[in-house]
Every structure is written in structure tokens, then in C-alpha cells.
Amino acid sequence: MNYRTKLDIIADILAVARRDAKRTQIMYQANLSYKVLVRYLNEVVASSLISFEHEQQCYRLTEKGKKFLVVYREYVKSNKGVEKRLDYVRKKKHDLEELCKSQKLDSLTIESA
């Protein structure tokens, strides 16, 4: 199971707020519990990533929030490439370690030679 990071959750909230959303819409569309929603809403409003529009009683994405989403998408794309390369490197390291493992039969042959 993949858990979302803090940045993933913030990006989900901002993506919903891009369409001017009420608290309940954000909670359901970003797949958050009420408790988690309140904590993150306070944080993204305090960071000026979204603003609360009192007249419409909804949350709206700010310019700073739009910039966050652009940079977040670039980060996710780059991160996937890095993860793929890391997996490759880890596999090669594992292969090398397996080749270096001694086997009892090999060590007996070397000692008796």
C-alpha cells in the first residue's frame, strides 16, 4: 500500500481548490478524514497556498498555490526517474553481493588446494 506524503496531500488539496471548493468537497475529493483535513487546511491557508473566500464560503487556489502545483508535478516526474535508477542500482548491488557470497563447498576446495 502506498501512503501519501505531506506534499502529496497538500497537492491533492490544492488540486481540488483549483475549482473553488467547499471544505466537504476538499475532504471527499482529496480522500481525507475531517481531522486531517482541518490540520492541512490550516497549514495551506497559513502558507497562502489557498485562500478562504468568505462571500462564497469556499477555498480558492492562490498564485502561490498554482506555482506549488507546477513545481510539485516537476518533482514527481523527477522523483519517479530517480526511483527507477535507484532500484536498478540496488538490484545490481544485490547481484554483486550474491556473487561474493561464499559457499561451504567452495571454501573447502580452496582450503585443501
Describe the model:
The model has no long low-confidence stretch (mean pLDDT 90). 70% of the residues lie in helices and 7% in strands. It is elongated, with a radius of gyration of 24 Å. The protein has 113 residues and is mainly alpha-helical. The chain has helices at 6-17, 23-29, 34-46, 63-100, 104-112; strands spanning 50-53, 58-61. Helix 1 packs antiparallel against helix 4. It has five helices and two strands; from the N terminus they run H-H-H-E-E-H-H. It has a domain at 6-80: Arc Repressor Mutant, subunit A (Orthogonal Bundle), CATH 1.10.10.
Summarize the structure.
With 113 residues, the chain is mostly helical. Helices cover 70% and strands 7% of the residues.
What attributes characterize this protein structure?
113 residues; Arc Repressor Mutant, subunit A; two-stranded antiparallel ribbon; 5 helices; elongated
